[in-house]
Amino acid sequence: MHDQTQLLTELNDRSREVFRRVVEGYLETGDPVGSRSLTRQMSEKLSAATIRNVMQDLEYMGLLGSPHVSAGRVPTQLGLRMFVDGFMEVGEVHVTDRQALDATLGANEPGVGSLLDRVGAALSGITHGASLVLAPKHEAPIRHIEFVSLGPDRALVVLVFADGQVENRVFTPPPGQTPSSMREAANFLNALAEGRTLSELRADIREEIVARRQELDTLAAELVESGLAQWADQGAPYERLIVRGRSNLLDGEEDLDRIRSLFDDLERKRDIAEFLDLTEDGDGVRIFIGSENKLFSLSGSSLVVSPYMNADRKIIGAVGVIGPTRLNYGRIVPIVDYTAQLVGRVLSGRGKG
């Protein structure tokens, strides 16, 4: 199998132009590109027969393919990857796109969750793809924890952070809880919690429960563990996955199964979190095309994703756009990059300036 560097050196100027125009035409229309249409676009005057020969060479190299119903060519996954890495021209973020993203910061709703929801909706709207936002856990020190009974099998755990943010979640408590066991559990947590972040608190809580089991009622201990487990997200460092605009991925009925399989996969945050490990290898936007990642191997989708960082330059989440492999990469890459920088600035408390 040729590698990209070798393939690039094997292409002369004529082959490069034919390749670039086929890919750009395909990304714009979704249709195979034929030699006859290229004769009108080429910078040097070439016959359709000459262009067909060049396209056959590109097909032999694995860069183009020919759908069986058409005489035209489309880029292969290898071809798309080479185009993205070596030929793509990345534009500026259009002023109206920038304004739409900036406007998400102006809403009065409090909380990081609602901000990221708005960002996801705006990103989906302007790219006509599905947006993906991986949100960080809130890691400010805790001021206070409370349990509130909502019924025999429902309770609320409320966390008040030192920075004033309040988060709460409904969960199923162990059976047999009483108002006094809930107070006991909250008192136990608050004695330990103040000034610690949630992850610091979780690191110590089990040891404390074992050491103080005698003074802490078994019911209260179970409530502490099950309540805090709601915040653990099975050990993942990311709080939640926001996906907006999945209907944008549907071109027709035949796509339904493909999209359903993609979103079944997306529910497994573990796979999405792996993208962050991959993005840590390099700054800025990463593009995953089709089966380059196991998540998209069945659905044939692409992901354009960028991590965002806190004030300490630590990656704490990611934003991205999912779509068919024929995304307008040149337009979407700067939009995703801009969105990630915007979110990073807000979450780091640096505002828009």
TrEMBL record:
Entry's Gene Ontology BP terms: negative regulation of DNA-templated transcription
Pfam families referenced in this protein's UniProt entry, alphabetically: HrcA (PF01628)
Heat-inducible transcription repressor HrcA C-terminal domain boundaries: 115-333
Keyword Glycoprotein applies: no
Molecular function via GO: DNA binding
UniProtKB keywords: Repressor, Stress response, Transcription, Transcription regulation
HAMAP family from the UniProt entry: HrcA
Function as written in the Swiss-Prot or TrEMBL entry: Negative regulator of class I heat shock genes (grpE-dnaK-dnaJ and groELS operons). Prevents heat-shock induction of these operons.
Family named by the database record: Belongs to the HrcA family.
Name by which UniProt lists this protein: Heat-inducible transcription repressor HrcA
Annotated gene: hrcA
